């Protein structure tokens, strides 16, 4: 349930001015609150390598006003960013750097491929250009154009906001816990297998040792008999 709707209803049933100022109750789901916070504070990390990055600079000016959607904080460290904005041509030489930056970003993280070059390699049909960054990292939103206009960037951000709002924090947590449990199970099974193999080796060693001892004693007994 949306807070704004709920609040309006609350004020409607309590028309007295003072009543609305008293502490009241808001009900919602955790998913709604988390997604509301996340979708309205998507801070981009601009990975700009070519002309699309210049176009992104114009998106940042007051005329377009990125702070309307809470994305005016452009961060130049992956540890403080939510959205990796790849604007420009990516070469194979840069691919490992881009991947490392993506991996340095804390989860949840999203990726926007801005422009033809980042989305598909653009007109660079050559040995050195990556034909789309989705060959290296997962992409959430693609923006067409060479270069895309600021309006197209906003459109992509709105799409990303919709996507973020559809995600389920609780479901993600449950999946993450499930993954961790499966990993623990797999590791325990591997450790058990290793322990069983080690014990088996030791038992075989002891058996061999006893057999050798027995043979030596038999030999000695025969020698003394003779
Ligand atoms: S898509 Fe066009 S504008 Fe953007 S980096 Fe490639 S060549 Fe430049």
Would you write up a description of this structure?
The protein has 226 residues and is of the alpha/beta class. It folds into 2 domains: 30-167, Rossmann fold (3-Layer(aba) Sandwich), CATH 3.40.50; 170-226. The chain contains 8 helices and 4 strands, in the order H-H-H-E-H-E-H-E-H-E-H-H. The protein has helices spanning 3-13, 17-21, 30-39, 51-59, 95-104, 115-120, 150-166, 169-225, and strands at residues 44-48, 83-87, 110-114, 141-143. It has a 4-stranded parallel sheet. The radius of gyration is 31 Å and the shape is elongated. Mean pLDDT is 87; it is low at 1-13. It binds iron/sulfur cluster. Residues 50-52, 88-89, 115-117, 122, 146-147 line the site of iron/sulfur cluster. The site of iron/sulfur cluster has 11 residues, from helix 4 and helix 6.
Strands in their spatial order, largest beta sheet = 1-2-3-4
How many strands in all? 4
Low-confidence sequence ranges:
1-13
CATH architecture annotation of the largest domain: 3-Layer(aba) Sandwich
Mean pLDDT: 87
Strand percentage: 5-15%
Radius of gyration based on Cα positions: 31 Å
Structural class: alpha/beta
Broad CATH class of the largest domain: Alpha Beta
**Biggest beta sheet summary:** 4 strands, parallel
Q: Which hetero ligands occur in this complex?
A: iron/sulfur cluster
Q: What overall geometry do the principal axes of the alpha carbons give?
A: elongated
Q: Which fold does the CATH topology of the largest domain refer to?
A: Rossmann fold
Q: Tell me roughly what share of residues is in helical segments.
A: 55-70%
Number of domains: 2
N-to-C SSE string, H for helix and E for strand: HHHEHEHEHEHH
Distance between the termini: 100 Å
Number of helices: 8
């Amino acid at each position: 349930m949306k807070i704004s709707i709920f609040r309006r209803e609350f004020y409607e049933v309590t028309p007295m001015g003072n009543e609305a100022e008293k502490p009241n109750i808001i009900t919602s789901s955790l998913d709604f609150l988390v997604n509301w916070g996340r979708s309205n504070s998507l801070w981009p990390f601009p990975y700009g390598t070519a002309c699309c990055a210049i176009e992104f600079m114009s998106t940042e000016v007051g005329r377009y006003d990125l702070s309307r959607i809470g994305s005016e904080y452009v961060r130049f460290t992956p540890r403080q960013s939510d959205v990796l904005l790849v604007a420009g041509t990516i070469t194979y030489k840069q691919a490992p750097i881009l991947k490392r930056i993506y991996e340095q970003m804390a989860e949840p993280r999203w990726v926007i491929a801005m422009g033809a070059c980042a989305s598909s390699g653009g007109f660079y049909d050559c040995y050195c250009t990556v034909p789309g960054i989705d060959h290296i990292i997962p992409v959430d939103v693609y923006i067409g154009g060479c270069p895309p206009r600021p309006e197209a960037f906003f459109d992509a951000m709105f799409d990303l906001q919709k996507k973020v709002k559809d995600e389920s924090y609780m479901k993600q947590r449950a999946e993450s816990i499930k993954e961790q449990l499966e990993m623990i199970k797999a590791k325990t099974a591997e450790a058990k297998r290793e322990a069983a193999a080690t014990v088996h080796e030791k038992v075989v060693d002891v058996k061999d040792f006893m057999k050798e001892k027995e043979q030596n004693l038999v030999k000695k007994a025969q020698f003394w008999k003779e």
